[in-house]
């Protein structure tokens, strides 16, 4: 490329960048100011308790929320409402006894109350999405579909609120005990449920269809089923001190990054199920008429797997850095590490075959479902059936 062409290309990029910012509305800039103001308020209130890496995480969170809110308008009220309720909960929660004395905490805002509401909303959304698909045909304006979407937003908000308030509750248990609540299977199943739901909600808006909601919410409901069993059957909801291996700042970034990947893989697999349902249905059947086109579902599978693969790659690198600090080596062929590599290779192969061989359709749908099974074994099966350095996550 000549110097003149390079200059023209750079000018075009600058023009497009400037046009992007000119398209932003006053509300977009108010959103940016609100994010910056919230970040500064958090720093002023809790900065003395933050280590340098927590300050970096706070700054990166604000930097991520601003363009996220610009790009996904529905995320703005969600973030503001959950943030406001979290602040309210913390302000009326001076000690653990307050959870029994305050009506708001006891029935709405304590971590256990919020998480139970999450379960109710997600299970209700699953039923309503399928009812909408069967009775309303997936029409965007159908009442049942709108309620299902609202329930999914409410469940996601309740789950996020529950984890944020649980974070505060860990501090109330005693000096030096506070930790980011992604340390055990109970907490990460909450994280998995609302992360998967939020990823689905984003693509529901992008593809403008609710017909896939019931399929995706099935995997969320499965998470809820495990969570309820773990809560009531194993009494796993109690807050316990962190074991030494988890007392690291790496946990704050490694675990959430992993579960964004798991959520994206879950959405891809359930879209694959919907793809196969349509492929095996008669062309005149309700499933064939009401589900999105094959091209749309294929594209959505690809987008979710690409998103999950990117986050899983980052999580694996972060995990290796954590392992080097905790155990003195980046890789030890621990069962969890080995199966993480298998998951990574599986999705790398999926993407490779799509890009280089042009694979589409039914084989890739089956592969996405198989990928979720492999991922589930990596996430849960290793903890149940195998032992190793990660055995602290067992049932």
Automatic annotation (TrEMBL):
It is a multi-pass membrane protein. It is found in: Membrane. Residues 182-390 form the Cytochrome c assembly protein domain. GO terms for cellular component: plasma membrane. The chain crosses the membrane at residues 26-44, 50-66, 78-94, 114-135, 147-165, 185-203, 215-232, 259-279, 300-324, 365-386. InterPro entries: Cyt_c_assembly, Cyt_c_biogenesis_CcsA, Cyt_c_biogenesis_CcsA/CcmC. Its main location: membrane. The keyword Membrane applies. One of its GO terms (molecular function) is heme binding. Keywords: Cytochrome c-type biogenesis, Membrane, Transmembrane, Transmembrane helix. This is Cytochrome c-type biogenesis protein CcsB.
């Amino acid at each position: 490329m000549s110097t003149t062409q390079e200059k023209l290309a750079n000018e075009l990029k600058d023009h497009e960048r400037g046009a992007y910012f000119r398209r932003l509305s006053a509300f977009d800039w108010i959103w940016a100011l609100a994010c910056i103001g919230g970040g500064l308020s958090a720093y002023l209130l809790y900065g003395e308790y933050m280590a340098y890496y927590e300050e970096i995480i706070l700054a990166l969170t604000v930097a991520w929320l601003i363009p996220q809110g610009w790009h996904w308008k529905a995320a703005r009220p969600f973030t503001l409402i959950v943030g406001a309720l979290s602040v309210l909960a913390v302000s009326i929660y001076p000690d653990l006894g307050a959870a029994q004395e305050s009506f708001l905490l006891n029935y709405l805002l304590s971590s256990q109350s919020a998480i139970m509401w999450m379960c109710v909303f997600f299970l209700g959304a699953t039923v309503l999405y399928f009812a909408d698909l069967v009775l309303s045909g997936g029409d965007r304006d159908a009442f049942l579909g709108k309620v299902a979407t609202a329930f999914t937003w409410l469940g996601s908000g309740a789950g996020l609120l529950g984890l944020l308030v649980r974070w505060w509750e860990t501090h109330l248990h005693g000096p030096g005990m506070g930790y980011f609540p992604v340390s055990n299977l109970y907490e990460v199943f909450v994280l998995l449920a609302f992360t998967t739901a939020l990823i689905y909600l984003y693509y529901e808006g992008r593809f403008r269809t609710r017909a896939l909601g019931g399929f995706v919410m099935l995997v969320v409901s499965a998470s809820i089923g495990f969570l309820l069993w773990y809560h009531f059957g194993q009494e796993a909801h109690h807050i316990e001190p962190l074991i030494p291996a988890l007392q690291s700042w790496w946990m704050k970034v490694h675990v959430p990054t992993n579960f964004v990947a798991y959520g994206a893989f879950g959405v891809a697999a359930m879209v694959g199920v919907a793809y196969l349902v349509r492929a095996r249905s008669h062309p005149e059947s309700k499933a064939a008429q009401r589900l999105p086109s094959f091209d749309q579902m294929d594209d959505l599978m690809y987008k979710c797997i690409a998103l999950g693969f990117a986050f899983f790659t980052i999580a694996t690198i972060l995990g290796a850095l954590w392992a080097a600090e905790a155990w003195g080596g980046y890789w030890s062929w621990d069962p969890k590490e080995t199966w993480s590599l298998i998951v990574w290779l599986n999705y790398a192969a999926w993407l490779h075959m799509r890009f280089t061989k042009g694979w589409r359709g039914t084989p890739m749908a089956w592969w996405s479902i198989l990928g979720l099974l492999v991922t589930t074994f990596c996430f849960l099966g290793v903890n149940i059936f195998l032992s190793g350095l990660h055995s602290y996550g067992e049932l």
